Sequence to fold (68 residues):
Amino acid sequence: SKEMMAAMDAEGLPHAEISDVQYHLAATAYVEAMLEIVRHSIPKEEAKEQFAFIYKFFHLAWKSLYNM
Fold:
């Protein structure tokens, strides 16, 4: 988000420049990925595994973009 990039700029930390459109696309993809689990009525125990996978996948992507 712009707030995160501004905070990193203030601290002199390197990061990727992410446009509003790119941020919107990534955030939407994250929410849509989670909604797919619900849409497909995945059983609770498997859903937990899939949510963990989605979180890890996107978390690593954001960490990479923000050089964390």
In short: The CA atoms of residues 30 and 55 lie 8 Å apart. The longest helix spans residues 44-65. Helices lie at 2-11, 20-39, 44-65. The chain has a mean pLDDT of 87.
